[in-house]
Amino acid sequence: MFSVRITLAITRRILREVFRDTRASIFLLVAPGVLIVLVRNLFESAADFAPTGAMMLGAFPALSMYMVGSTLVVRERNRGTLEAILATPASRLDFVLAYLCAAVAASLVQAVSTVAVGYTLGGLETASPPWLLGAMAALCAIFGMSLGLICSAICQNEGQASQLVPGIMVPQLLICGVFWPLPVMADWLRAIERFMPFSTVTRAMTAAREHSYGGSELVVNSVAMAVLTAAALLGVAAIIRRRTA
Amino acid sequence: MISRNCLLIANRVLRELRRDYRTLFLFTMSPLFVMILVAGMLVETPRTFDRSGLLVMGLFPTAPGFLFAAFAIQRERYRGSLEFLLSGPVTRLDVLVGYLLAFSVPAVAQVALTVSVSYGLLGLDSAGPWWAAALLAMLACVLGVVLGMFAINLAHNELQLTKVLPTVALPHLMVSGLFLPYEDMPGWMQAAATIAPWRYAVGAVSELHLHSSVTSELVLNLSVTVGIVFALSAVTVGTVLRRRTA
Fold this sequence. Notes:
Structural class of chain A: mainly alpha
Oligomer: heterodimer
Subcellular location (chain B): Cell membrane
Radius of gyration of chain A: 18 Å
Membrane topology (chain B): Multi-pass membrane protein
Distance between the termini of chain B: 30 Å
GO molecular function (chain B): ABC-type transporter activity
Strand content of chain A: under 5%
Family (chain B): Belongs to the ABC-2 integral membrane protein family.
Pfam families (chain B): ABC2_membrane
Number of helices of chain B: 11
């Protein structure tokens, strides 16, 4: 089915490729912190910032990993590297698992840097301990990456992939509660928000901030994220294949 | 400034845009869509909607202009058609003006749609007249196109661009005065805002929210924005739109 050695080899290659680009490193590791500091200063006090800040800890990793992920598979396919990989003993599952491993590694580094900035410079205070929000941030990032990968697998070319980001993510981001509190939004908007995949991120982070260890809301949304992640990755595995003729 | 060559380029870019339904749809419809979402978000607080809604309407056109101009020019450069153009009797200014003209056509449709729905159906209310808001939205679109071309300086290919754009745009958005007025920002943020090109466009639109007549503040912000458009165009012509030897 799959081999650990091949999976890890592909993982190493993906991580090397992603982080070799200085722009990607800045985007994944520096930009979240900068953004948190900026947004913190848009608010009067740390207490006012906490609801938005907690959501940002999840939303930005998810968004940034989505953007990185959404260009990866389409590039592998267009430049022919996917065909090359699948012509070797590597299976499609190896390929997808390698992307998952790469997402886990990158998201852990990102979560540590984001949460560290959030709790120190951002002055964030939450009912749950920071490590829990860090773990959630990593989960959100992996979730974002797998959403990006499935979008990327569906796209025909790189131009399409880059249009999906604004087309799919911006509306979800607007109504997920980061910009404006959910309870005062129009009913039809809240009805839509309930079914958006991205809402699981903000809901889980809000639950973790409000209650110690999150309670059932956190569990439900984490499970939903995990299920969606698995579904997206299986979808990628189903879509990519060597095209004969 | 508007030569035959630049009209030909505008015509070709427009044809390419028209063939690309997805881009055209996102370009013309996205500001309207965002306005409807913002109206839904701020339904309980009409006064906030008057301020934020006007800002979004007057400034959101920057985003699609930025995005699609950046990708279009990047493709032009990456696939070699820019080199090809410049080896003929086409000047670099022709390319820039051609792109601006081409993007202005769908921008007019986009702004007309957004302004009519916002003032008509969504109940937006501003002290300044609707046509002034529409003109500012057009200016925002032009600013977006020029900013997008300028941003190419920071990336070598289309995929790098997807990381460069948010890294540049998101912090820019935060200090622009959209969420917190300039006067209320801490000192270091004001310093950052001063060099953020978008802040002056935000300033101009905010004036329109409060005053029905032309204020000195409006004129100042407007002229700085136009100045930025020209300055960025000059830099873009010198850096992005050139044949690279060796």
